[in-house]
Amino acid sequence: MPDYRLVNEDGHVVASATHDDDRAAVLWRASAPVSGPDEEPGRGVRLEKRSGDGWVELPATGRADAY
């Protein structure tokens, strides 16, 4: 199972988890309680997936339930 993390605008990891696939990770990000004061939950962070020795950002397009 792939590892995922949420990174805030300052580059700090604010949460991490392991999910079965990208769809589950997108749903997790959409429900994440980490955001700025004027943003919807999960919108102030980037979703990244472990890839080899590094991390790649997963695009946040559309709504999570559309995946």
Distance between the termini: 19 Å
Overall average pLDDT: 79
Helix content: 10-25%
Integer-rounded radius of gyration: 11 Å
Taking the sheet with the most strands, its summary is: 4 strands, antiparallel
Shape: globular
Poorly predicted residue ranges: 62-67
Strand order of the largest sheet: 2-1-3-4
Query: What is the number of helices?
Result: 1
The helix-and-strand class reads: mainly beta
Query: How many DSSP E strands?
Result: 4
- Strand proportion, as a percent range, falls in 25-35%
Instruction: Write the element-wise H/E pattern from the N-terminal end onward.
Output: EEHEE
Oligomeric grouping of the chains: single chain
Short description:
With 67 residues, this protein is mainly β. It has one helix at residues 22-30, and strands at 3-8, 13-18, 45-51, 54-57.
What labels describe this entry?
34% strand, 67 residues, mainly beta, 4-stranded antiparallel β-sheet
Fold and architecture overview:
This protein is 13% helix and 34% strand. The chain has 1 helix and 4 strands; from the N terminus they run E-E-H-E-E. It has one helix at 22-30; strands at residues 3-8, 13-18, 45-51, 54-57. A 4-stranded antiparallel beta sheet has the order 2-1-3-4, with helices on one face. A hairpin with a 2-residue loop joins strand 3 (45-51) and strand 4. Residues 62-67 have low confidence and may be disordered.
How would you summarize the topology of this molecule?
Layout: E1 3-8, E2 13-18, H1 22-30, E3 45-51, E4 54-57
Antiparallel strand pairs: 1-2, 1-3, 3-4
